[in-house]
């Protein structure tokens, strides 16, 4: 968006060349804009971006521990991410994530979902697990990471 910057710079240059008061005003306006820009840049630089590779690896390791060396199914609910990063770390660590068969447990990771409601979700990984047990599932665990990511574990209900 260079056009607004050029227009604003032209206006400041015009004010600068008017008189001494114009120079003072131009300096204060330029310093004010610079400080606002710098403050915003520092805030962005300090912000921890989640999910990242480190948080993804941590969550896949956590899921593997909770799975207890038993195979598990995995689903990701996210508005702006795909499950390939999680699957990469599952495969890298030879973790028992199962992609083609229904197992006895499902882990759902919700990223940024204000209300994480996987029950009845039409996503393929969740729907297949749900239908394999005729909708008779129970939450056996729910954990929060970084105030942004939730991990939920499901198992079939015992009858």
Describe what you observe in this structure:
This protein has a four-stranded mixed beta sheet, covered by helices on one side. It has helices at 2-16, 20-46, 53-67, 84-92, 124-132, and strands at 73-78, 106-111, 137-145, 149-156. 47% of the residues lie in helices and 18% in strands. The chain contains five helices and four strands; from the N terminus they run αααβαβαββ. The relative contact order is 0.13. The chain folds into two domains: 2-46; 53-156, no CATH class.
Separate helix tally: 5
* Fraction in beta strands: 15-25%
- End-to-end separation: 62 Å
Quickly give the structural class. alpha+beta
Q: Could you list the spans in which at least 5 consecutive residues all have pLDDT below 50? A: none
List keywords for this structure.
159 residues; alpha+beta; 2 domains; four-stranded mixed beta sheet; 4 strands; 47% helix
In summary, what is this structure?
With 159 residues, the protein is α+β, with helices and mostly antiparallel strands. It contains five helices and four strands; from the N terminus they run αααβαβαββ.
List the helices and strands and how they pair.
Layout: H1 2-16, H2 20-46, H3 53-67, E1 73-78, H4 84-92, E2 106-111, H5 124-132, E3 137-145, E4 149-156
Parallel strand pairs: 1-2
Antiparallel strand pairs: 2-4, 3-4
Helix pairs in contact: 1-2, 3-4
